[in-house]
């Protein structure tokens, strides 16, 4: 159990979520609870359950100092958040397909013949994809896990904010990650807001949805 009471209140999780610009710097998140948050977040769906997401948890002062020059407009968030979760995609995640499928068979989640069918039909399709096609699939999947992570964090009593404005060309080099294999997706700050974020207006459903 973390410092804050977890909630299953749907309205609190979805409608209570706010974009937070300044966090309480005294609030930290233990590795145990952060692991729990990530385990729950990674229940998000992904194409063929290949889970292409990878996370870098930046929580130390040294790590934040390395990140800070890459982020132009969100310095207070970076400095005061309990952590910054950098989300990346793994362009070679197909290498995990057989291990994932074997584990699903072992656990009784699917029969062996379905595993064999997927390995014989889906895997060749993935390995023959162009880089742009693969990146499109991975962008979708990492977006799903990122949103789920923010909702899970809210359920744990924490606030978050997604950041897309940072030096994407340098972050891999700064943290020693292969930029060809692990393209950057976004940053997510997490912690306890020092003050509640502002509410924001949403367009009506009849302006963004069409029935046919």
Automatic annotation (TrEMBL):
Tell me where in this chain the Nitroreductase domain is found.
Answer: 16-192
**Keywords associated with the record:** Oxidoreductase
Q: Which domain of life is it from?
A: Bacteria
Q: Please state which protein family the record places this protein in.
A: Belongs to the nitroreductase family.
Q: Which PANTHER family match?
A: NAD(P)H NITROREDUCTASE YDGI-RELATED, NADH DEHYDROGENASE_NAD(P)H NITROREDUCTASE XCC3605-RELATED
Recorded protein name is: Nitroreductase
> What species does this protein belong to?
Paenibacillus tundrae
